Amino acid sequence: MRDVCVIGLGLIGGSVLRAAATAGRRVWGATDSAEDAEAARADGCDAGTDVAAALRRAAERDALVVLAVPLTAVDGVLGAVARHAPEVLLTDVTGVKGPVLDAVRRIAPAARYVGGHPMAGTAKSGWTAGSPTLFAGAAWVVGVERDTDLAVWREVAALALDVGAHVIPLGAAAHDETVARVSHLPHLLAAVLAAVGAYGGPLAAALAAGSFRDGTRVAGTRPDLVRAMTEGNREALLPVLDEALGKLGAARGSLASTGGLAATIQAGYDGSHAVDRHRSAARAGVRVDLTAPEARDGLLALGERGGRITALEGGVAIGEVA
Amino acid sequence: MRDVCVIGLGLIGGSVLRAAATAGRRVWGATDSAEDAEAARADGCDAGTDVAAALRRAAERDALVVLAVPLTAVDGVLGAVARHAPEVLLTDVTGVKGPVLDAVRRIAPAARYVGGHPMAGTAKSGWTAGSPTLFAGAAWVVGVERDTDLAVWREVAALALDVGAHVIPLGAAAHDETVARVSHLPHLLAAVLAAVGAYGGPLAAALAAGSFRDGTRVAGTRPDLVRAMTEGNREALLPVLDEALGKLGAARGSLASTGGLAATIQAGYDGSHAVDRHRSAARAGVRVDLTAPEARDGLLALGERGGRITALEGGVAIGEVA
């Protein structure tokens, strides 16, 4: 199995390091955070603060490098990759894919890069919050672009599968638009609802019940984490935010003019049931030969229909789709 | 203890009938729904479909009449009250208070009316969905206006306390604005989010995680129930909807211009924690003498600060407030 070098040992990077080690891989990590490095060493892991040395070792051993730093730190680490391991196998775990893909093309263009995004996390952060089982049962998006080298794609997908996730093959643009829709917009609506509710003071708190609690739950997430993911996905988030504003404005207009909210409420009811139906739809087995010329199209067709890869058998990806 | 006559034997009315009987009161009910009446009789309750007879009996026995019909049916039942029990003790359990208060003043002005709203419910409806413990631990708003007769208020509060709820004394306008904020707006935001998410198809369903599930949970509520409460509270809901639109529009503008969402996200985080703080604040005991001239102000000051009445001792209401 391919060696793994993780740069950044917070919640996600620290969990990748532990999960890959548990899967039987040789792993090492480095981080700018002396605190995370020390905590990792205290847990018996091969970890330090010398990012350059870790990358040089990755180049020597042809390891897979996992960038697990916040989006704002990606450019800096890519500079180190370009200097110390310019042609290395490279992936990342950042929550937006378009901006990272652009940065790799700009800063470390020779790296054999395929992006990734494990859809797992907790409200906590840092090495101590991580766990080798964080990715068990989670979706892990692995990027497919027109120019993706599927041998590299296979390396990244294999790591995701090794740590217990299933793989969703997806282009950066489709990923970023979809997370704007189902993750970033929910965080912004929760923030707006919490602010409107809080304006009602202690009386609002006394009358708030299930609908308010559910609708504001993620508003308690650390603001810097929410800012990083939403602001980092600005380009894809703006049109989704406009969709939501349009629908809420239409509800306002209809309530003010005719007094009716039927269209808004019915669309929400239908939408909620449609999402549930997609989730519970019967799925059929699919095989994608990664060496075939149409393999990229096969992977994208699978991912864009909500399908997933669950195993690799040599050069064949085994999956399921509704 | 005062006899109780419940008109409407769905989820809430049926639960009031059962809970009041369990508390040891003599109870009877009537409903337009032959199905609910039959189900109530099958459970051994004194129930039928002759609303006029039930109201005449209430007038004879000076019972407390509880209107437990949807807002759209309130005017019709108030007409029957005006004909058959014009001066009866009267309350209701409708989710909006201003429109019902107006209707009582217009249609049954001689009724000794104080409005109510038990903050309890389930996604189900009808007699069979009800339970004698539905109100255990719930908040029950009991209306206080400038002209409220506190002897009537005491009768309504006593029923709420008897069935296990605590009482929040509140004017109709404050009630309607606050439920718009913490209940009706959450339903509309959940509907918008579910519609935007569903537009992303099976891929969105595959990537949707906790934030989307929490944010859309109430979008699965029966559309006619959500319409009834939101459309019925139009006047109070419009300005709250404008607040939400203003905040979401400000987020959109900031993201488009500077790329920053700090203000939106921090306000949501602070709001969410402020609501939690109000909920867990230490509370001191309060006594309001219902026979004192300033009793109405005392009750309103308590309710508007998120306080509650937990018992009645003769003419004194015992409560707590932060």
UniProtKB/TrEMBL annotation, chains A, B:
Residues 2-286 form the Prephenate/arogenate dehydrogenase domain. InterPro entries: 6-PGluconate_DH-like_C_sf, NAD(P)-bd_dom_sf, PDH_C, PDH_N, Preph/Arog_dehydrog, Prephen_DH. Keywords: Oxidoreductase. It holds the Pfam family PDH_C. One of its GO terms (molecular function) is NAD+ binding. PROSITE patterns: PDH_ADH. GO terms for biological process: tyrosine biosynthetic process. SUPFAM superfamilies: 6-phosphogluconate dehydrogenase C-terminal domain-like (SSF48179), NAD(P)-binding Rossmann-fold domains (SSF51735). It comes from the Bacteria. PANTHER family: PREPHENATE DEHYDROGENASE (PTHR21363), PREPHENATE DEHYDROGENASE [NADP(+)] (PTHR21363:SF0). Belongs to the prephenate/arogenate dehydrogenase family. This is Prephenate dehydrogenase. It comes from Prauserella shujinwangii.
